[in-house]
Specification:
Layout: H1 3-15, H2 23-32, H3 43-56, H4 63-72, H5 84-98, H6 103-115, H7 125-135, H8 142-155, H9 161-176, H10 185-203
Helix pairs in contact: 1-4, 3-4, 4-6, 4-7, 5-6, 9-10
Protein name: N-methyl-D-aspartate receptor NMDAR2C subunit
Keywords: Receptor
InterPro entries: HD_phosphohydro
C-alpha cells in the first residue's frame, strides 16, 4: 500500500472525528480484500475505487465519509451471503464509534455502505458519489470491463454456466433498463455512454 493511500486514510479517519490513525483497522480491511474467495471484490477493486475518488475529490462535499465508506463497502464478502453490505456497514459504524467519532458521522458511513447494495437510487448527494464510484467499472475501457466480467464469473465458479449466464444477463439488463446508470452529472458525462456500450457488448 503506497504512502498516499495511507495519508488519505488517516486524513479521512481523523476528519470524521475518530481518534488515532486507524492503522490496525486499515491493515485489517486491506487483508479482507485479499481473501481467497474473492476475484473481483479484491484489493484491485478497492484501489480502483479510491483512485476514482481522487479524480473527483474536489467535487465531493463529503469526501472523508465517502473515502472511509469505500474502504468498508466490500469489507465482508461471502459469496452466498445475503447481508454482506449490512454487516460491512455495521462494522464501519462500530469501528468509528469505538474510535470516538460522533454518532452522526458513524451513522453517515453506515448509510453510505448500505447504499452500495444498489437496491434503489441514491437519496443523498454523498450516496450518489459513492455509488457512482462503485459502479465506475461499468464504464471502464473495454479490456478492463472484459476482465471484470471474467472476474465476476470466477467468483461464482460454483454456479453452473447456463444458470450463471441467465442470472448475469438479468443483472446487466436491469442496469440497461435504468434511465441513467450514474447519478452524478460528472459520471454521466464521463462514463454513461461507454458503460452502456460495455453492457450491450456483454449481452450480445
Amino acid at each position: 500500500m503506497n504512502e498516499r493511500l495511507v495519508t488519505a486514510w488517516q486524513s479521512a479517519w481523523q476528519a470524521l472525528g475518530a481518534q488515532g490513525d486507524g492503522t490496525a483497522l486499515r491493515a485489517q480491511l486491506w487483508a479482507a480484500y485479499a481473501e481467497p474467495q474473492r476475484r473481483y471484490h479484491t484489493q484491485q477493486h478497492l484501489l480502483e475505487c479510491l483512485h476514482t475518488l481522487d479524480t473527483v475529490r474536489e467535487q465531493v462535499p463529503e469526501a472523508a465519509a465517502v473515502e472511509i465508506a469505500l474502504w468498508f463497502h466490500d469489507a465482508i464478502y461471502e459469496l452466498q451471503g445475503k447481508d454482506n453490505e449490512a454487516r460491512s456497514a455495521a462494522w464501519a459504524a462500530q469501528a468509528l464509534r469505538d474510535a470516538g467519532a460522533p454518532s452522526d458521522r458513524a451513522e453517515q458511513v453506515r448509510r453510505l455502505v448500505l447504499a452500495t447494495r444498489h437496491q434503489a437510487s441514491p437519496q443523498a448527494e454523498d450516496e450518489a458519489w459513492l455509488v457512482d464510484i462503485d459502479l465506475a467499472i461499468l464504464g471502464a475501457a473495454p479490456a478492463r470491463f472484459a476482465e471484470y466480467e471474467a472476474q465476476i464469473r470466477a467468483e461464482y465458479a460454483f454456479v453452473p454456466e447456463a444458470l450463471f449466464k441467465t442470472k448475469r444477463a438479468e443483472v446487466l439488463r436491469g442496469f440497461l433498463a435504468r434511465p441513467f446508470l450514474f447519478s452524478t452529472a460528472h459520471f454521466r458525462t464521463e462514463l454513461e455512454a461507454r458503460a452502456r456500450a460495455n453492457l450491450g457488448q456483454a449481452l450480445a
